[in-house]
Design a protein that fits this description.
Helix content is about 25%, strand content about 25%. The chain is built from 19 helices and 33 strands. A hairpin with a 5-residue loop joins strand 2 and strand 3. Helix 1 packs across helix 2 (about 30-40) and helix 16 packs antiparallel against helix 17.
């Protein structure tokens, strides 16, 4: 492998390291540079293979594969103050040593300038101020102070009037950060007036202080911080302001993301970037390098003229995996990013029009027109992203809602899957923390209801599900997290706790991540939604609920659970009579058996008032603590083979085809009788499997009687 032409100007190549070494010994200056750079960064382990990738913009990156440490990225570039080593090569700026360095602020200024002047798709909406803001440069106060101002209430004084006029016409910054568990200054009923009069900046935790400092540095006067702009001990104010979260972040001039701080007292400006603390300095070599006579004979005249005229450099860089801000994409990240693990920050990410992210490695900028980073990786590679990646709503900050109902529902499924991987301090925030995104989805659904097949209520929100897509939404399944949920009781999803969060038909009723089966054009609904509703608690119509139900008409069949793992609890099977097939059952969490009295609404009149053993989600479970919990002095009875459940058929999609046999994939919700709501059911899991097309139609024809079930 000997290169007369520049291999870095080839779209892609992969070679074993031994071949590159052999080529370098023959005099290939490109291969020599690669080997020298790799030995500089990792002298103790030699890679098994090396790949080169060239972006359409000219950026070159290497993937170096090691046996022990895995893949490492290396960026090849010319320093910003040098002549390009060859046409199109990246001019790499110096990475900032810390977020508060001059280099970092130069990057911020360049991003703001480029977006304000060149990005037609990033035109900022007219400022619509939130209810309250923090004035970081209040008139009449020293720079050591800041002030809480109201933008909508009648001003009691001239100073408040001036502040209100200013906030009605000036943009504001929004802060996205992790609260953590420590104490922090918050706005409450008893200190509300004092904060409006002004307070010391130093009284704020470090993350909030850093946000104020950055707001001033950017040249803005106002910032929105939830801890200070929402009255935290007022349930009404909290609910109202939480319901307005979408507009707060959408209308912000810029969202500052404190990505490295796990708590509000940690700060994000004083942290040295990993590029200066844990990585070696960039490798640099004179270019073109001094060559032997034999190599010089093969050099072009242009190369001879440029002999030793510039610098070729390489530095450790992070790939697209580490440039992602999605929790599901963060599992292999080597950069700590606590912000990407929190539930509340997810909608702040998707709803923000422009974001400035402070990460452990560098600063990053995301807006509707561009994704930029200090190392230029995003600039180099965004042109080659696949159509799927460009349309992925989780890969950007701005929320690109599709124009069709199916597209909107599919996007919501993406949102739920990503959101449920994140953590919340309070389980009761499960629905409020995604209510801003739900509001955007509801508005889009309302705007596209123009076809004759659209139901007027298709944008009705039901504790995380949509009535217009309810049968598909009901097919969600809880999934366990290896390592997190592995206990002596198996890998089943854990309990949502004793506090009521949502009805059992909703994914919000469990605390584990959930998987949503995305809509398919071939989805065939096999039941009818007769009624559905939820009773909301408080002023946020898309927030907390205290009850809910769905009433369905369709095929209901009793069956028994088969436990192949003898009490592990995370997987069952069922073989409903007459179907001739075994279906997989995914429980919503650990299940238990219990005795329930059949009510007067029981469909079998001869059994009214009798006791029947049924299945429900386990109500008491000391997760990870060893023995099972106890409710009312009675330990739970673990579900074993033979436990009776009910299967309700939701719908079908095309399945596999074996020779001439056409299979259909069928989807059920698995139900148990409700002890708290006699005559109704509670969801305990979902079941899936395949059945012959003709067999399904025969079964449904023989079972002409449709059952009406209410799930709470």
């Amino acid at each position: 492998m000997y290169y007369d032409d520049n291999p870095f100007q080839t779209t892609h190549w992969t070679h074993p390291t031994s071949a590159i070494i052999a080529s370098a010994k023959k005099g290939c200056v490109y291969c020599r540079f690669v080997i020298d750079a790799i030995r500089y960064f990792e002298p103790d382990e030699f890679p098994v293979g090396i790949s080169s990738f060239l972006s359409p913009s000219g950026g070159c990156s290497l993937r170096v594969d090691y046996t022990i440490k895995g893949a490492v990225g290396v960026q090849v570039y010319t320093p910003i103050d040098q002549e390009p080593a060859w046409p199109g090569i990246t001019h790499g700026p110096e990475l900032s040593p810390s977020p508060d360095s001059p280099q970092a602020f130069k990057f911020i200024q360049s991003c703001l300038l480029a977006c304000n002047e060149n990005h037609k798709n990033c035109s900022m909406p007219p400022p619509q101020s939130p209810t309250r803001l923090i004035d970081v440069q209040p008139q009449g106060l020293r720079p050591t102070h800041v002030r809480l101002v109201e933008t909508r209430s009648p001003p009691p004084s001239r100073a408040d009037l001036e502040a209100q006029r200013a906030t009605a016409t000036f943009p504001y910054i929004a802060l996205s950060y992790c609260w953590g568990t420590g104490k922090t200054l918050t706005t409450k009923t008893d200190n509300f007036s004092a904060l409006k009069a002004g307070f010391l900046l130093s009284s704020l935790p470090q993350t909030l202080q850093d946000a104020v400092i950055m707001t001033r540095k950017i040249g803005q006067r106002y910032i929105w911080i939830d801890a200070l702009c929402i009255i935290q001990d007022s349930p009404t104010d909290w609910e109202v302001e939480a319901s307005r979260m979408a507009s707060v972040y959408q209308n912000a001039f810029l969202t500052i993301v404190a990505g490295t701080a796990a708590a509000s007292d940690e700060g994000f400006l004083q942290r040295a970037h990993l590029s200066t603390t844990e990585f070696k300095k960039p490798f640099q070599a004179a270019w073109p390098p001094p060559t032997s006579t034999s190599r010089a004979n093969n050099m072009s005249s242009q190369e001879r003229q440029k002999q030793n005229k510039t610098i070729l450099a390489a530095r450790l860089a992070f790939s697209d995996l580490e440039h992602s801000h999605s929790r599901t994409r963060d599992k292999l990240q080597r950069i700590p990013n606590p912000w990407a693990t929190r539930g509340w920050t997810f909608q702040e990410q998707l709803l923000s029009t422009r974001m400035l992210l402070f990460t452990g490695y560098e600063l990053r900028w995301i807006c509707p027109s561009a994704s930029l980073c200090e190392c230029t990786y995003l600039q180099q590679h965004q042109q080659e992203q696949s159509e799927e990646a460009r349309m992925d709503p989780l890969a950007r900050s701005i929320f690109p809602m599709p124009l069709t109902k199916k597209g909107v529902y599919d996007t919501w499924h993406d949102i739920v899957e990503e959101y449920t991987t994140r953590s919340l301090t309070y389980g009761t925030d499960r629905l409020p923390a995604v209510s801003g995104l739900a509001r955007v989805v509801r508005e889009r659904l309302s705007n596209i209801q123009t076809g004759s097949d659209d139901r007027p209520s298709s944008s009705k929100y039901l504790a995380g599900l949509w009535e217009g897509n309810l049968t598909m939404d009901l097919t969600w399944r809880a999934r366990f997290v290896a390592g997190k949920d592995s206990t002596s009781h198996g890998n089943a999803p854990r309990s949502a706790g004793s506090e009521y969060i949502a009805p059992t038909f909703s994914w919000a009723s469990v605390t584990n991540p959930v998987c949503c089966r995305l809509s398919q054009p071939e989805w065939t609904q096999r039941c009818i939604v007769e009624d559905a509703d939820c009773v909301v608690v408080g002023a946020n119509p898309l927030g907390r609920v205290k009850s809910g139900f769905v009433t369905l008409r369709g095929h209901l069949q009793k069956s028994i659970l088969l436990d192949p793992y003898q009490g592990r609890g995370d997987l069952y099977y069922t073989e409903p009579p007459g179907w001739g097939e075994r279906f997989k059952v995914d429980p919503d969490q650990l299940l238990e058996e219990f005795d329930v009295s059949l009510s007067s609404s029981c469909q079998d009149a001869g059994k009214q008032g009798q006791m029947e053993r049924s299945v429900r989600r386990m109500r008491c479970w000391a997760f990870g603590s060893g023995p099972m919990g106890v409710e009312n002095g009675t330990p739970p009875r673990r579900v074993r083979s033979g436990a009776e459940v009910y299967l309700f058929l939701l719908g079908q999609t095309p399945g596999s085809r074996i020779n001439e046999r056409v299979k259909l994939a069928v989807y059920f919700i698995v139900l148990g009788l409700s002890a708290d709501h006699p005559g109704k059911f509670e969801r305990v899991g979902c079941a899936t499997g395949e059945v012959d097309e003709g067999k399904l139609e025969e079964l449904l024809r023989l079972s002409s009687r449709k059952s009406v079930v209410a799930v709470v």
